[in-house]
Amino acid sequence: MIKTLNFRPLSHTSALRKIVITSMLSATVAMSGCSLLSVYKIDLPQGTAITQNQAQKLQVGMNQNQVLYTLGSPAIRDTLEPKRWDYIYDYKAGTEGSRKGIADVKNASQHLVVYFDDNGLVTRIEGIESLPAS
């Protein structure tokens, strides 16, 4: 025996409620792609931000502690080359950086290299020209 389905007619308020709920859900989904409802993104600085003014305080003959005091910790202290310190800086602007118009710094374009001798004294400094002036 085959049973037939009997549909009850919807009441006016029930149909209106379903239309309102459906349209509100559709509007919410449609607006989720709008910039007003976008997720806040943080600014992402990586490494040590150094200016040319700071780097020009370095002098050949300074010891490692003086370099640490002047510039801070290097981004890379290679165990295979302990006489070389690399200061690398990258920056990805988030929501606040984009609002202020701060440009991204990519691919380690700001890269300072400090070389030391066996006694831990600075022998050579490279990359000062790649750093921002201020």
What does this structure look like?
With 134 residues, the protein is of the alpha+beta class. It has a domain at 44-130: 2-Layer Sandwich (Beta-lactamase Inhibitory Protein, Chain:B, domain 1), CATH 3.30.1450.10. It is 28% helix and 24% strand. It contains 4 helices and 5 strands. Strands 1, 2, 3, 4 and 5 form a 5-stranded antiparallel beta sheet that branches. β2 (76-77) and β3 form a beta hairpin. The longest helix is centred in the first third of the chain and has 20 residues, at 12-31. The mean pLDDT is 80.
Summarize the structure.
The chain is an alpha+beta fold. The protein has helices spanning 12-31, 52-55, 64-71, 95-100, and strands at 44-47, 76-77, 84-92, 105-116, 122-126.
Give the helices and strands as they follow along the chain. Answer: HEHHEEHEE
Number of strands: 5
User: Whole-number average pLDDT?
Assistant: 80
What CATH architecture label of the domain at 44-130 applies? 2-Layer Sandwich
Radius of gyration: 30 Å
The main pleated sheet reads as:
5 strands, antiparallel
CATH class of the domain at 44-130: Alpha Beta
Helix count from the secondary structure assignment? 4
Q: What's the end-to-end separation, in Å?
A: 87 Å
- Beta-strand content estimate: 15-25%
Low-confidence stretches: none
Shape: rod-shaped
Instruction: Estimate percent helicity.
Output: 25-40%
Structural class: alpha+beta
